Amino acid sequence: MKLFNILQSASCFALLAGLALSPSAFAQQNESDKAALDEIIVTAQSRAQSLQDVPVSVSAVTEDTLVKTSVVKIEDLTTLVPNFTYTETGISTNFFIRGVGSGINQAFEQSVGVYVDGVNFPRGQQVRAPFLDIARVEVLRGPQSILFGKNSVAGALNIITNRPTATFEGSLLAQQEVVDGETVLEGVLSGPLSDRVRARVAGRYRKFDGFIHNATLDRDEPNREEYTFRGLVDFDVTENITATAKAEYSQFDSFGRNIEVENAQAATVGPFTGLNYGQILVNVFGQDASVLNQTRDGIRSSNGDSSNNKQQLYQFDINWALGDFTLKSTSAYQDFKYSEVCDCDFTGANVFLADLQEKYQQFSQELRLTSPLYDKYDYILGGYFQSSKHDYNDQIIVNTNSILVPALGGSGALISGTQAARHAHVDTTVWSAFAQFNYHVSDDVTLQLGGRVTNDKRDGTRIMNIEAAGGGALPAAQAAAAIVYAGGFAISSTNLAAIAGAGNPTAAFLLNKLGQPEATGHRNKTKFSPDIKLVYDVSDDTMLYASWARGYKSGSFDFRANNRGVSPTTNEAFEFDDERADNYEIGGKFKFGGNVELNLTGYYTKYNDLQISIFDGVLGFNVGNAARSRIEGIELDGRWAVTDHVRLTGGASLMDFKFTDFKNGQCYFGQTPNVDFDGDGTPELCDYTGLSNQLVSDFSGNIAMDFDWPVSENYEITGYTSLFYASAYDAAPTHDPAGRQDGYAKINARLALAPKDGPWEIAILGKNLTDKIVKTYSGDAPLSGSSFGVKTNYNFIGQGRTIALQGRVKF
Questions:
Q1: pLDDT digits (tens, 9 = 90+) for 567-588
Q2: What is the residue-wise DSSP string for 596-636?
Q3: Which of the residues 23, 240, 448, 749 has the least number of beta carbons within 10 Å of its own beta carbon?
Q4: If DSSP states are collapsed to H, E and C, what string results for 503-567?
Q5: Chain segment 495-545, per-residue pLDDT in tens
Q6: How far is Cα of residue 697 from the mean position of the Cα atoms in its chain?
Q7: What is the count of structural domains for the chain?
Q8: Residue 491: closest CA among 307, 352, 669
Q9: CATH number at residue 491
Q10: What are 576's strand-pairing partners?
């Protein structure tokens, strides 16, 4: 606690110092003493350009900021970049730019494209991989379909790793967090192996004890352990050809989840009248008393969750200088797989488990030709090929000790020790060609025209079976388990189809209601994405631009549905369509006196057929396309070198997201359906028209102060203090009021001591000093409403206050 008080006082001093250094104080500086900003170079348009010269709404987080804020994973970026949000759910990973992202379905590719050194990482869970030796992260907002790819419909994360150096260098970093028990160790070596060969190796280890106590298992969660290794070799093949080989391996495992159950309401009708969910589980079914904790207090109940992830990447780049032209070839192979156990009733009771396995393999090849900057024009041309294989399996397991066995009476014995098993597979082939052409109308005006044409071919299958727990055929005595799974949990299966085919009327009725258990699909779509920008260089210090871009995200096949939902057939429900975005944007980038930069963007985006995935209220997620939505907003960011020793940075976003036509929304438990989507005379869905999307704050912003202060002739203190604020948002995709998160503010601070230009640094770092515990995702606890008739919510919650000691040595 004393350590926290010291750091809190230091951060308050830093904030007060920033207020004291007001513009009136700076006005007393001599003109010769005016500070200057370091130039930030980005590659958002495939060329190395100043951030101020790029006609795109982009936030660049430099290596220096990544180190000072201890960014160890993509989630840490959310307090540095307004309009970027991230959350993990029980079975998925979601991240959003300008309120748009992909929902819960392993079949979804991400609306926010993630690119590491030019290679696309399309699976959501891949972004859980830890950051290692990163030079810069560029967050590009709005469709980025031309130079990044067809699926970057909401924006792109362009992550650039550090390259081998021509001189020897190295570093070691050690960090120990003292509140929740986090250890980070990182090492880097880089330098020449010969006159023509340079190499770099980096490794990172992270161990995290967790910040929520699991009362059922008496342990802290989520407990994480991560390893990442990367090796790069640059070699000069000739004077004009340079090749780079990269190999990377990551293993990132976790045990437990950051979930708490709350809002447990008592049943008003039925056999459990007067009891809430925890009381039903403990008092009626004799489950562990830890289940009775149904308040948000840092304590949860669970029988245990785990996630084991492995990722390999092998990349080979060739840069060939053809006179003044540059031809770049990027070849990459990646293999990603994980295995998870989800105690997906989110309580310490023995209700059901879900095991999940996913494997994704991708080969990609890109060729990109970049012209020199001629007086009248310049251009970029390219072609891209991608081939991938994607397998997904899961099993909904009812063990012999599950409370569902006695809860279902005589039917319970039929499902005791069984599982509903799913297998899905998709093969994808992508071909695309793209071009961006800049025509310099005059010295001050440039017309930029771009386009990408893409052919996307996919073949998919999905099948559901009822099996013995662990796999294998059901015992003959439990052959009717498929009827129980269908009637109680809305799961269709090959077993149900077989029983219906044998003349069982109950099975035939349920099969007709739920649809066939096998689905197949074939897609072969070609799309064209255009992009037009008009850029006006008013002066050396002012650039204005206006743009229109159309982006697409590919449709595919639904992995997570247990039935046909409201679609006429299973095959129709299996396929979901492309989503399309039209983005209109105006912006300006301004410099003032060499020490102030200000960027302003206004945008209006229309989405058609937005891809959605919503919990069906039982055990599945149904995929579809929301008809239309629109987003409009203003973004502001800037930098100010106040003095040679003090720098301010910040950003803000005002955003209005609205579904303009969304009739197929899922109702939360207790909500009265108001849409008869399938026309059978019974409303089954809820109208989201006029509502916003999940995780959308009307306002978000951050401001940071970075300073260095000499304390003697040889030593200096450096500091970094930041404030982030987000207004209220819906953590529940169903817009359940119980999942509403109020607005909040977070303060981070860091103080470090080091010799001037010296080889070492020691620092103390505090995150979330305001100790704000916020909801990042919320939903109805599975089966609590559908099987027991009680309202109960679960919430994924963020981490509270942390204090860390950090040491770094360079050599």
A1: 889 998 899 888 899 999 999 9
A2: EEEEEEEEEEEEEEEEEEEE-SSS-EEEEEEEEEEEEEEEE
A3: 23
A4: CCHHHHHHHHHHCCCEEEEEEEEEEEEEEEEEEEEEECCEEEEEEEEEEEECCEECCCCCCCCCC
A5: 999 999 999 999 999 999 999 999 999 999 999 999 999 999 999 999 999
A6: 16
A7: 1
A8: 352
A9: 2.40.170.20
A10: 556
Average pLDDT score over residue span 294-309: 94
Phi, psi of 2 (to 5 degrees): -60, -40
CB 719 within 8 A of CB 750: yes
Closest by CA position to 649, among listed 663, 632, 633, 637: 637
* Burial of 124 from C-beta contacts in 10 A (0-12 / 13-18 / 19+): buried
- Return the structure tokens found at 604: 């209006």
How many angstroms separate the CA atoms of 167 and 383, rounded?
35
Residue 91 corresponds to which tokens in the numbers above?
Answer: 């079975």
Question: CA 95 to CA 101: how far, in whole Å?
Answer: 6
C-beta of residue 420 within 8 angstroms of C-beta of residue 464: yes
Work out the pLDDT band at 176, boundaries 50, 70, 90: very high
Question: How is the chain split among helix, strand and coil, in percent rounded to 5?
Answer: 15, 50, 35
Domain residues for the domain of 483 are 2-810
Question: How far apart are the C-alpha atoms of 783 and 791, rounded to whole Å?
Answer: 10
Tokens of 785: 């409403």
Whether 298 contacts 211, CB under 8 Å: yes
